[in-house]
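The records we work with from here on pair a chain with its fold. Taken together, the tokens spell out the fold as the letters spell out the chain. The record below shows the convention in full.
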Amino acid sequence: MMPQSLKDIAASLGAETLGDASVLVDRLAEPLEAGVGDLALAVAPKFAEHLLASAARAAVVWPGADITTLGLDGAIVAPRGRLAMAGLTQMMDDDPAYTGHASIHPTAIIDETAKIGEGAEIGPYVVIDAAAEIGPNARIGPHVSIGREVRIGSRACLHAGVKIGPRVQIGDGFIAQSGAAIGGDGFSFTTAGPSGVERAVRQRRGAPLDPPEDGTWHRIHSLGSVEIGDNVEIGANSTVDAGTIRATRIGDGVKIDNLVQVGHNVVLGEDCLLCAQAAVAGSAVLGPRVILGGKSGVADNISLGRDVVVGGGGIVLSSVPDGIFVSGHPAQPTHEHRAGLKALRRLVKG
């Protein structure tokens, strides 16, 4: 990045400066590792000692920080440190995976009926199938596969190895990390007679068991696809399955971490956040701003209301109303889950 003054950086963030705002910086750094030309990210008082031990002349600091005591020439004040980091990292991301100018690599295979928007950068060994449409200023990394009749909006960024199945519809500002797979068949099978699962449920309820029947699984094909809104991000090696008849739907602003599974016919409301290794089973419906902690799971055909939070490792087996924080397996309101764990520890201690 070309050197920038603290004054210009602060203006782009809507932030204030302290001390000498003409100090130039060209790189972000952690406080202890910051050098003379770096902007140290010291957004909380706990980083004060690290700043003093470094060669930093400039930093992003917390409100009320004394830059003279911290040995700084200038600083940017960040009332919300992580929000400032969002703006700074975007500003200083030169993304070496892409050249930054429109081009189509000679090894790319693009069907003659596909439409590529202006300013698109398409990397090596990309395959774009018939009647696909790619919006302007897209960046498509190597070995990406885009299926027939896919529609992708403007400013998409598809990193290496992303796979987009047929008829998927995607809005503007889409980001998919390496290995993400969108629009594959849902995991949906049936048997001619009662399956092992059905027999197990009957046994649990005390009903007599039917004799075992042919356990052959018959595929239910996925005829739907996936519809994704604007400004959605999907992490590395995550999957979103196509719907059986209607589309699986991902709302505007949804952020999906690495290694997440979204099953067929699922509906994710706007601004949901799904952390690593979370899984949402088929036909579940999540309201706006639902957060799923890492390794959590949501059973099929249930609904989570708006602003529900599922703690890490929580397994949700029944519908949850708006605004509830749940934890555990099976998930229950977190205060009840914690009270139960405390009671169990008291019993163990005798």
Q: What stands out?
A: The chain has a mean pLDDT of 93. The domain at 103-286 is CATH 2.160.10.10 (UDP N-Acetylglucosamine Acyltransferase; domain 1).
